[in-house]
Design a protein that fits this description.
F-box domain-containing protein; Leucine-rich repeat, LRR (right-handed beta-alpha superhelix); 21 strands; 16 helices
Length: 558
């Protein structure tokens, strides 16, 4: 259930008589399959009667400090107190007020919610001064945690004014015996108040934690915590407020498999959700200890006077951290994402210096380069071609801010024979890229193994379309907001007719060259079943209707 300040208009359920709703609820076995949004006060009172129908409650407010705002929160707190404890199993509170945050926590404490399993408390803005008074974060949330410690499995604490102490952290870990997922995020910047976290002796030697997301005032005590987390599978750590020794210590612990069940590690992105650092799919090969998923999404830390730096002025030790983790987990790593300024020539040079024992089992690679690399595109091309050959099982490749000309891009992609899914975004203008000007287009063009191709914000010209090769396994193509100024309609038509004979799903967005000529080509392709046109003004309604008359599903948006 989701309650918000302004009731929704036109909600057909809310417009029904309560008697009819009562009849529906009494005869249909709802089990967490009902979502009530922006619930009015009368509806909230009505829902109190229906035990077992709902278990999840979410309070979401606007960033408003008016009297109306606090009056609304009073009704929410009152409703929570009146609800039966067994009903409150999953509670999410998102507010712009730390005072409201504390009131909700006290309400939970007063209710003795012994059935609560998931608790999320989030204050979205810093609000030391509310309604003429100074608000200081209290231990109210900790009282609520104590109350439901026996059943709590997930805890998320997020607030700009939060300041987690060693005592509070130790209390949570020692009391919540069933806690599996813990997310903490604070943007506290008062350096004088930042604590040094230490675990007390009360924390058990074996914790059930499987997920940790941490963006705190200072690092977690990794040396003492990780050995206690024998079941930890996913770890997300924001690099903010971490020093070089702290990051290197964490990487060293992970390289030594101090958390033996750990499969996924993300460094640099602040955790927001209950399930941090979870890729879409992790391979189930659990016969070996080691990471399956590795992600870096952080910015370079300012170099100290004694740090070695590269040509971009970045400390090289951060690039070594990436290479060190890849080397330590080279036998198990199947998915990797590098989205940061650290995705540079230095990083890939260090990675290719790793003494690999065997080909990497990497299946998925997602990278975002530094903007364009105007000076070293050719060097990056050579390194990436070597890396692709080191990954014979690589099937999925996503690249953003591509630093190559079309020829370089095709040469990199053609060095892999196993790619099935490729997503390309934001290519650099040719005049801004380092190319040897002597390299040829690869004879094979794009990998013929492709089944999915996405092109977004690319500059597509006639040469690009001519050298793709025949993609006879391609099933789905997504073309989004590309530059067609150097591309003829005839080349685009021939590309679909001659190069993609078996494509069935096509999506165009903001397509400047799309007209009835292209629509006619699609009409002559029996394999095409599904066409999506978003913000494509060139194609007429008559052409759309003709496609539909042929049994093709056409979706027009905008």
């Amino acid at each position: 259930m989701n309650t918000q300040l302004i009731p929704a208009r036109g909600d057909w359920v809310m417009s029904l008589p309560y008697e009819l709703i009562t009849l529906i609820f009494a005869n249909v076995p709802f089990e967490d399959r009902v979502r009530c949004m922006r619930v009015t006060k009368s509806w909230r009172a009505f829902l109190l009667q229906w035990k077992g129908m709902w278990h999840t409650t979410e309070f979401v407010s606007a960033n408003d400090s008016s009297a109306k705002y606090f009056a609304w929160w009073d009704t929410c707190v009152d409703w929570l107190i009146r609800a039966e404890s067994s009903q409150v199993r999953d509670l999410h509170v998102v507010t712009g007020s730390m005072m409201v945050w504390t009131l909700m926590a006290h309400a939970l404490d007063a209710k003795q919610c012994a059935s609560l399993k998931k608790l999320s408390l989030r204050a979205v803005v810093s609000s030391r001064h509310e309604r003429g008074r100074v608000v200081t974060p209290s231990d109210g949330w900790l009282d609520a945690v104590r109350t439901c410690a026996g059943t709590l499995t997930q805890l998320q604490l997020m607030g700009n004014d939060l300041r987690l102490t060693s005592r509070q952290l130790s209390t949570v870990l020692s009391l919540c015996k069933q806690l599996a997922r813990f997310v903490y995020r604070s943007q506290q910047t008062d350096q004088a108040q930042i604590p040094h976290l230490i675990l007390s002796r009360d924390v058990p030697d074996q914790l059930l934690l499987t997920d940790i997301g941490w963006s705190g005032e200072c690092p977690l005590p990794y040396t003492t915590l990780l050995p206690k987390c024998r079941q930890l599978k996913r770890l997300t750590v924001a690099e903010e407020r971490h020093t070089r020794p702290q990051i290197e210590n964490l990487v060293s612990l992970l390289s030594q498999s101090r958390a033996p069940a750990l499969q996924s590690f993300r460094l640099g992105e602040a955790p927001y959700y209950f399930c941090p650092a979870t890729p879409e799919k992790l391979p189930a090969a659990l016969d070996k200890i080691g990471l399956r998923y590795l992600e870096f999404n952080c910015t370079p830390i300012e170099a100290d006077d004694d740090d070695d730096i590269n040509d971009e002025g970045e400390p090289i030790w951060q690039h070594r951290v990436i290479a060190h983790l890849i080397q330590a987990h080279q036998e198990t790593l199947t998915s990797m994402k590098i989205h940061s300024q650290l995705c540079s020539l230095t990083t890939w040079d260090l990675i290719l210096q790793i003494p690999f024992k065997a080909p990497l089992p990497l299946i998925s690679l997602d990278i975002q380069f530094q903007m364009y690399f105007p000076k070293n595109g050719s060097q990056i091309e050579e390194l990436m071609r070597r890396f692709f050959k080191q990954c014979p099982q690589l099937t999925s490749f996503n690249a953003q801010q591509i630093p190559w000309t079309h020829r370089q891009l095709f040469r990199v992609l053609s060095s892999s024979t196993s790619l099935t899914h490729v997503s390309l975004s934001l290519s650099a203008p040719d005049f801004n890229v380092d190319d040897d000007n002597n390299g040829d287009w690869p004879e094979s063009g794009l990998p013929s193994s492709l089944t999915y191709l996405q092109m977004r914000l690319l500059s597509i010209d006639d040469d690009f379309l001519e050298h793709t090769g025949v993609l006879d396994k391609l099933i789905e193509i997504d073309i989004d907001d590309c530059d067609y100024s150097s591309c003829s309609t005839e080349s685009l038509r021939d590309f679909f007719l001659r190069k993609t004979p078996h494509v069935s799903h096509i999506r165009f967005e903001r397509h400047g060259k799309l007209d009835d000529t292209i629509a006619a080509a699609l009409a002559n392709m029996p394999s095409v079943r599904d066409v999506t046109l978003k913000d494509c003004r060139g194609i007429t309604n008559a052409a759309v209707n003709h496609l539909r008359s042929l049994g093709k599903e056409v979706t027009v948006v905008g």
